[in-house]
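User: Here's a chain of 393 residues. Predict its fold as tokens.
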Amino acid sequence: MKSRNWNRFAVATGRLFLLFVLAIACNKLDAQAPAKFVGTVTAISGNTITVKTDAGDSKQVEVSATAVIKQLEPGQKDLSAAATIQLTELAAGDRVLVKLDPNSATPQALQIVAMKKTDIAQRQQKDQEEWQRNGTGGLVKSVDPASGLVLLTTGAGPTAKTVTVHIRKDAVLKRYASTSVRFADAQPAPLDAIHPGDQFQVLGQKNADGTDITAAQVVSGSFRNVSGLVTAIDTSASTLTVKDLATKKNVTVHITPDADMRRLPDMMAKMIAARLKGGAAPAGGTSVAARPQGSGAGGPQGSNGQGGGMGAGQGRRTGGGMSQALDRAPAVQLGDLKKGEAVMLVSTEGTDDVTAIKLLAGVEPLLESPDASRDLLANWSMGSGGGEEAGTQ
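Assistant: Prediction complete.
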């Protein structure tokens, strides 16, 4: 099973890259940059196209016979090599950048640069496979900016291991914004911005057992782990209040549409708790780590990165058997939670006001091993933030 957040990470990565490529290409084609927008084609009627823009509105644009329509392939950096196509070759679902004619009284396209939905899907699949083959993630144990070495801890409980990451001089380093769960909001950041305890994902060349990797791409972020009891729920405000077991203080948790909320069935919670303690699964249960990777729900999904850009292509690491079990747990909504029940969550940073990235209910057995549970949930959360399915934003 390909884990959903790993998919999200690669989709957002591909979007940002393709948007950058598109910007370069369009600047080369026309230095004067008339009004333009990026979006997804939703309908074509005659010589009029309807585009849902990345800003969320819908625009109808007339495409005259003199409009220049170019098809840009994913990874292509120069429009001079892009193929010229006809309006009839566009289709719903294609990603487009539309440059409007400044001399027209009504919205009329001067130029259209398109990426075909099928090409984006192929790029997305390729990126997913690359991240799953050559990517890994975990929590930062130590970082040495001078030598370019980062030590990670991955997994949880008895499956935890240390990974040595060598940061290449040309590696692409990005960091999540402290107030955002979207990968599209991640910004370039130097190696010394990474600190112990940060979440960290890396793509690069790994050794045979995955304990040593030379990084080509890195994304990191500081997030907060909270375990506690629900003291209040406000569905109208999309918030809940949790009394943090560590600080004994109430924390207001904002639940956005991006939040991944799940409830562990009782037997699954007990099995995971047993694994975290290094023991056997409860009688009648199957070892979580022994379950086949492809079983259960939760196959490839879109991204949380919700960023602009012409294309997509994102994947998420699998994170091990126990993390896969969390992906298979039933999804829940805010209204399904109950006052007094225990939850574990990973959120944006904050003292008494945070935004949820991941939330697990039904976790009472896991709280018996708080440190291992914290590492499990933190590893499971990485990769959020940030592109949805190709061409939908």
